[in-house]
Design goal:
By secondary structure, the chain is α/β, with parallel strands linked by helices. About 35% of the residues lie in helices and about 15% in strands. Strands 1-2-10-7-8-9 form a 6-stranded mixed beta sheet, sandwiched between helices. Strands 5-4-3-6 form a 4-stranded parallel beta sheet, sandwiched between helices. α3 crosses α7, α7 packs across α8 and α9 packs across α10. The structure holds pyridoxal-5'-phosphate. Pyridoxal-5'-phosphate (PLP) binds next to α4 and α8. The site of pyridoxal-5'-phosphate (PLP) has 19 residues, from α4 and α8.
Length: about 350
């Protein structure tokens, strides 16, 4: 196990272009995608319990077709690849990506619709439900060492992409459509859904790649140039930590990379982002509490965002607004563990 990713900044062909939330051309090229495409986005923004002070609004991303915010990113990363491939037969289009879970499901569904070859690199501790789902969708799943966060999976995918040019590597940590899609869809939807009164003072989001945090920030700054981004990562593996990952558990979907490595999308904003951390036990408690209060199931990263938003909101005034995101609704394993 290398302790660094020397390659994370090295030049690499990444098949991005500017994301578009107009998909008509894609659907006319591949009508099989219509049902997936038409059910991505347009998710509700709800007001959630606060602890006084600012009102808190959360974007509920489990309403996407595969149940998470990553459905947007899957579509956005696949679209330019498919557009560029055009009407040519798809048998030589090989898709390569790595994922902790949610993105993997969404990409696998898109690839299955088109009968595309997909290699998905996941960590060896991935739940069997994920592995079964990916295999059912026809993905070729490769597992790498667990306990070290996403780094070994990224490294393996980079290595494969470099050694065999037949793979089209989506590379979610470097592919800028991952930011653009959140600016043009998630962020624009939030702007349309927020109440007209109130000053948007903070935007709180868990950092996986940082695509959601940065993309939505760019959109929110059209309404309030001073909105402060708050990046949330697990206390067990915070953003930018110099420590290597320890192998302890953290809420899924978000994490620092360890070894002092900072996510490329987030790094340029380091001086303006407020960092917050939430431990896995606290995130689980937050899932429980939110479900008891509202009847709504939210995932660990959503609970972490809610906890940070609440604490922050309590320090603000009633005319201020904190916006956050609930990326998914949690896994069956977590809900079983919590006794639901
Ligand atoms: C549950 C969950 N929360 C948060 C995130 C973080 O999203 P991003 O990669 O946009 O930072 C992800 C990403 O996979 C996720 O699956």
């Amino acid at each position: 196990m290398e302790s660094r990713i020397p390659d994370i900044d090295a030049p690499l062909r990444v098949p991005g272009d500017s994301a578009s939330n107009r998909w008509e051309d894609l659907i006319s090229l591949h009508p099989e995608l219509e049902s997936f495409v038409s059910s991505v986005g347009g998710t509700p923004l709800i007001q959630v319990p606060d602890e006084g002070g600012a009102r808190i609004f959360a974007k509920c991303e489990w309403h996407n077709p595969c149940g998470s915010v990553k459905d947007r990113v899957a579509l956005a990363m696949m679209a330019p690849v498919l557009r560029r491939h055009g009407a040519r037969p798809l048998d030589d289009l090989w898709i390569l990506e790595y994922s902790g879970g949610n993105l993997a499901r969404a990409i696998a569904v898109v690839c299955e619709e088109l009968n595309l070859r997909l290699r998905m690199i996941v960590h060896s501790g991935a739940p069997s439900s994920l592995l079964d789902a990916l295999k059912d969708h026809g993905a070729d799943v490769e597992q790498v060492l667990t306990g070290y966060g996403l780094l070994p999976a990224i490294l393996r995918a980079v290595e494969l992409a470099r050694s065999d040019p037949r793979w089209t590597f989506l590379y979610q940590h470097r592919n800028t459509v991952n930011i653009d899609i959140h600016e043009t869809t998630t962020g624009v939807e939030i702007l349309d859904q927020l109440p007209a009164d109130g000053r948007v003072s903070h935007w709180v989001a868990s950092i996986g790649t940082g695509g959601t945090l940065i993309g939505v920030l760019r959109a929110l700054r059209r309404r309030s140039a001073t909105v402060v981004p708050v990046g949330v990562t697990p206390a067990e593996l915070p953003y930018g930590t110099d420590e290597p990952p320890t192998g302890s558990e953290w809420y899924h979907g978000a994490n620092g990379m360890g070894n002092g490595i900072r996510q490329p999308f987030v790094r340029p904003y380091d001086s303006e982002i407020q960092q917050a951390t939430v431990s896995y036990p606290d995130a689980l408690r937050g899932m429980n509490e939110f479900r008891r209060l509202t009847g709504i199931a939210i995932g660990g990263s959503a609970a972490a965002n809610w906890i940070v938003a609440k604490h922050l909101g309590a320090t603000l005034t009633e005319d201020e607004i904190v916006v956050t995101v609930f990326p998914d609704a949690g896994t069956d394993q977590e809900w079983q563990r919590l006794g639901w």
